Amino acid sequence: MRIIYNRYFPFGSFLATNIFGLIFCRSDKGRLTEVDQNHEYIHTLQQREMLFVGFMLWYSIEWLWRYIRCRDFMKAYRDLYFEREAYMMESDLDYRHHRQHFAWWYLFVEKGTLLREIGEFFGDLVAFVKKDFHWGKYLFAFLLAVGIIIAQVRFGIYDIIIAPTYDSGTSMLRLPLIYIMVYFLVLIVSLAMHHELWRLRRWQVWVFPVILLTIDGAGQGYYGYMAWAEAYGTTFRDKAYLQLVGSFMFRSVFIVLSLCVFRWLVEGKFGLYGLKRSGKYLRVYALIYVLLLPMFLMVSFTPQFLEYYPKMHITWYEGAMGWERWQLIGLFEAFYANDFIGVEGMFRGALVIGLARWLGCRAVLPMALTYMCIHLGKPDLELVSSVIGGYILGILAWRTRHLWGGIIIHLGIAMFFEVIGIARLLL
């Protein structure tokens, strides 16, 4: 911590101020004592965990809010969460060594409130990144993600490598190979960077990801439902609708059943990973979803969105099976939603929660890059956001051991796009 003495800054009655870890002190008001230095070092710790800019924004907004309420400059300053922690703990010169992350939040925000839950939510994210971070590993993952995105956006790798294989039937092999290759590439580099290659000696680390990604990729590449639709459909619309429903019905049911078997193999009991009674952060997930709705609405007007959504293009299947619109839409959306639950169970459930006992927190990053690959061929913005969203949801699944956050946000986004798309067709 560097202290810069000068005659002019900070202004007014203040002795010192901390800006990005640099302490500016008025030389005409004396030297900083050990207690004063400890006070400013606490501010440095606060700024680091808020990535400096976040600290400045929060500090300014909170001070303005408190000043409007009390109309007293110094009272608003002393009531700030950051200042309250610093003044309370400044006399404890050993505080820096045992301070909890976001202590200013935990000390003063009441338990059980949404505000407290938001702080714990971000605290978990920061704690995980600190535990898992290695600059070489994250640089490698970033470059790999950028390379995949460029290959898709610039060269259309999905249309060249994956799409043609659906007709030949080799998609059931090619997709799993792509997923497995990306997963183990990131995993091995990650473990090597952390000097944890010893984790690879466990057969579960090799066998379970291969089985899981083969199930997911083969399910995505499975086209047997085409023959099923031809056999049970009578008119062209019937067959087209059954193909649409079948594309999600077979994959989602197969994946969900496979995950139940996987849990039995690992824990000796049936059930889908992460679907347990836990309310941790549910209010935060719901709040994030509501705050993101305006952005989703803007995305829904982009050309790529109009080409891809809604999946249930009702005007193409009008009158199929002799059913009403609500029946056609309801059956499809039920299997479409179940597919998302299966995806969450596969990626955040089995690949993170299930493998955490052998890989620990190293299970998250390989999952996130592989999760991005299942979005190849989808709108560019969805492809880019999938790796970020998959990573964050992976962290939270690892910390909370449940999937409800991913289901709320992932399924919520998909259903929102479906509703907007269908409404646009019908109105």
Can you lay out the helices and strands and say which pair or pack?
Layout: E1 2-6, E2 16-19, E3 22-26, H1 34-49, H2 53-70, H3 73-78, H4 81-89, H5 95-98, H6 103-108, H7 114-132, H8 135-155, H9 157-162, H10 165-168, H11 171-193, H12 203-221, H13 225-232, H14 236-267, H15 282-299, H16 303-308, H17 325-354, H18 356-359, H19 364-373, H20 380-400, H21 404-426
Parallel strand pairs: 1-3
Antiparallel strand pairs: 2-3
How large a portion of the residues is in β-strands, by DSSP E?
under 5%
Total of helices:
21
Low-confidence parts lasting 5 or more residues at pLDDT below 50? none
Mean pLDDT: 86
Rg: 26 Å
Main beta sheet strand tally, sense and closure: 3 strands, mixed
Please state the structural category: mainly alpha
How much helix, percentage-wise, in residues? Answer: over 70%
> Which term fits the overall shape?
elongated
Can you walk through the features of this model?
With 427 residues, the chain is mainly α. The protein is 71% helix and 3% strand. The chain is built from 21 helices and 3 strands. It has helices spanning 34-49, 53-70, 73-78, 81-89, 95-98, 103-108, 114-132, 135-155, 157-162, 165-168, 171-193, 203-221, 225-232, 236-267, 282-299, 303-308, 325-354, 356-359, 364-373, 380-400, 404-426, and strands at 2-6, 16-19, 22-26. Strands 1-3-2 form a 3-stranded mixed beta sheet, covered by helices on one side.
